[in-house]
Amino acid sequence: MAAQLDMPESWIEHQHKLQDLAERQLFFVGGAPRSGTTWLQYLLDSHPEICCRGEGHFWKTLAEPLANMMKERRRVLDDKNKSVFRHSGGYPLPELEETKFLVGTAILLAFERQCAGATYRAIGEKTPDNVFYFGRLKRLFPNAKFLYIARDPRDVLTSAWHFFIKQKADGDEGAAKIEWLRQAIPQLQHGARAMLAFCEQHRADSMIVTYERMLAAPADVAAQLFQFLAVAHDEAIVAECVARTSFAALSGGRSAGITQEGSFFRKGVAGEWRSTLTPEMNEMVLRELGWMFPIFGWEQ
Any idea what the CATH number is for the domain that residue 86 is in? Predict the structure, then answer.
């Protein structure tokens, strides 16, 4: 009996810990796969006041299954209410807000686990697909901040081709590339437009960086990111974080530009699309995604 009496107090204490966590600076990182999201995550996580892990896949593995579970629960209770309890009204049906509460709690529990008992000023997670759910995450956590990394889509497609597709492609490589572009371009289009619309609506709580800018001026980008998350951004901390997440550090000692096929950090340069995409393929990308280039400062 004593153990049972202790359980509610323990549960309440845990809720207080989650509330404290929720009041810290939460943030979410997103971007197209192979656009530099992992590099950005490592840079953030290298800061002593930031805990940033990847990938939690909160929406696909938590929000959607919980919504389906609650929908089924509502159906079962409604059936019982209309049959066994049709004269008394039965049991109250769950509402949408309950699902949102469960999702928010599950994300906070995940953040608590990733912190592993340490205290951080800013806590976040990186899943590329987050860009499609930033609006929903914002409604769950109104004070959260959102980071998006953009990269020349031709380099995104090139990097993805080498990392995900090339080894699986059979027969005509040129035809396989064309088919890959046809499949991938709409997703890049959708993600970029979704993020730009979100940033327009939530300017104070969102920040966009580009892969190319991180290559050209990593210290400047790091300082801006740290300032955005309200953590220390003095020159010494910035320099240490940049050094710890350089291409050489992440790739095991290779210099940027030296290719290692199969490595997650394959080459670490901008403009490699020229050695992978034909002029016709380039035109195919620009035809659909050329509108992005002036916005992000890329050269066509």
Answer: 3.40.50.300
